From TrEMBL:
It comes from Pseudaquabacterium terrae. Transmembrane segments: none annotated. This is Histidine phosphatase family protein. SMART domains: PGAM. It comes from the Bacteria. It holds the Pfam family His_Phos_1. InterPro entries: His_Pase_superF_clade-1 (IPR013078), His_PPase_superfam (IPR029033), PGM_Phosphatase (IPR050275).
Length: 222
């Protein structure tokens, strides 16, 4: 039986002009994850990542801590949805940079509403695939893992694709993945076991590498 570790990228640059860039803390989160995996003697027969900059940077940080030299397979189907495009379907005016807790909560309320409409097919964010196409890209990556591998595989992606993957293997309604998505933490690890026929959920959204008082301030969500 194989094992697939799905890692959400480290902290990115929420509220900045370019979100798709790890913060300094995001890099440290990923290096620490790599160190934790090395301490446990983990090795991987393959690494797969989305093609966004934060995915690539996260894998480089993990590889640094792990001491690994894997070439990652880029998989565009593991890329995150465009949150700004999703929000624009329910709020046509550009949002201000979220600088207060209430502004952040407002941002995520709009995001939840936009995601619900995209999933239901009642709104189509500009420049994005349909929700069915988004799901197909993620399922394609899972199928690839099952058909090509039998050992341990590491996958680096974002909260949307990882929560969608969990929803797919649990047979959960699409809307249920929104709550999973909005609570997933940076550099968190989700574990699947897999056979050639199916994936099975083992854990979701864990931070074993940040378990300790020294890392209390390293836990982030954006």
């Amino acid at each position: 039986m194989g094992r697939l570790l799905l890692v959400r990228h480290g902290q990115a640059s929420f509220g900045a002009a370019n979100y798709d860039q790890l913060s300094e803390l995001g890099h440290r989160q990923c290096v620490r994850l790599g160190e934790y995996l090395r301490e446990r003697g983990e090795t991987f027969e393959a690494v797969i990542t989305g093609t966004l900059k934060r995915h690539e940077q996260s894998w480089l940080g993990i590889a640094e801590g792990l001491g690994a030299k894997h070439e990652a397979l880029p998989w565009a189907g593991l890329n995150e949805y465009d949150s700004e495009a999703v929000i624009a379907t329910v709020h046509p005016h550009k949002l201000q940079k979220p600088e207060t807790p209430e502004m952040v909560r407002h941002h995520f309320r709009l995001l939840r509403d936009g995601l619900q409409q995209w999933m239901a097919g009642t709104a189509q964010p500009a420049g994005m695939p349909s929700y069915a196409e988004f799901v197909a890209g993620i399922v394609g990556a899972l199928d690839h893992v099952r058909s090509r591998h039998a050992g341990d595989v590491l996958l680096v992606s974002s909260g949307g694709p990882i929560s969608t993957a969990v929803g797919q293997i649990l047979g959960a309604p699409a809307e249920a993945t929104i709550e999973l998505n909005l609570r997933i933490r940076n550099s968190s690890v989700t574990e699947f076991a897999f056979t050639p026929k199916r994936h099975m959920l083992v854990t979701y959204n864990t931070l074993p590498h940040l378990d300790g008082a020294a890392y209390r301030d390293w836990v982030t969500y954006t």
